[in-house]
Amino acid sequence: MAHGERFDVTPAQAAAGRPVADRDLPMLAAQWLAEGWDGPALRDLAGLTHYQLNDAGGLLGRALVELGFPQAESDFPWDDAPWRGYWGTIWWSVNQIDKKLSPYAAAQQVVEIVGDVPDLWEPGHGEVLVRLLEQWRDHPDDRVELADRIRGVLGSLSEDDVPPLI
């Protein structure tokens, strides 16, 4: 992450299992502190050096509990839903746009996931993404605009849009 950029991960999302690279945890903790969150483990996490990152995952868990966000397995009724294990890969794909993945490649990856799990097709905007991917292939001159539209669709994805099984 470049200096000055903001993370789009909230404590609630982190507690729900949204992946964050260990190397990014100290900066994320510092951002949360600046936003008004506070706790001993969060301050410790923000103060880690790159040599101490092996402690980051455990500190994140403690910090989230101190902030009132228990770990995902403890309080989410949809933990056993068939789509649950796929959402981390969707978040990873979205997080890697313009880093390891082009918008097109990220959209392809999300379409593969949501296409395999029926409960994810609609909340994963499968139909919209398929149309954007087709437009990308058919209209190469429009790819800059299409990349922005793909970023927007992927950035709007939320695990909260998938209804829990009751």
How is this structure best described in words?
The protein has ten helices and no strands. It has about 170 residues and is mainly α. α2 packs across α3, α3 (about 40-45) runs antiparallel to α4 and α7 (about 105-115) packs across α9. The radius of gyration is 17 Å and the shape is elongated. About 25% of the residues are buried.
Gist?
This protein is mainly alpha-helical and 166 residues long.
Key traits:
166 residues, mainly alpha, 54% helix
Topology of this structure?
Layout: H1 11-15, H2 25-34, H3 40-46, H4 56-66, H5 72-75, H6 87-95, H7 103-116, H8 118-121, H9 126-138, H10 143-155
Report the sheet-strand fraction: under 5%
Number of helical segments with 4 or more residues:
10
| Structural class computed from helices and strand pairing | mainly alpha
Question: Helical proportion?
Answer: 40-55%
Poorly predicted runs are: 73-80
Question: Distance between the terminal alpha carbons, to the nearest Å?
Answer: 39 Å
Q: Average pLDDT across residues?
A: 82
Q: Give the overall shape.
A: elongated
Order of helices and strands: HHHHHHHHHH
Quantity of strands, as a count: 0
Give a quick account of the main beta sheet: strands, pairing sense, barrel closure: none
Whole-number radius of gyration?
Answer: 17 Å
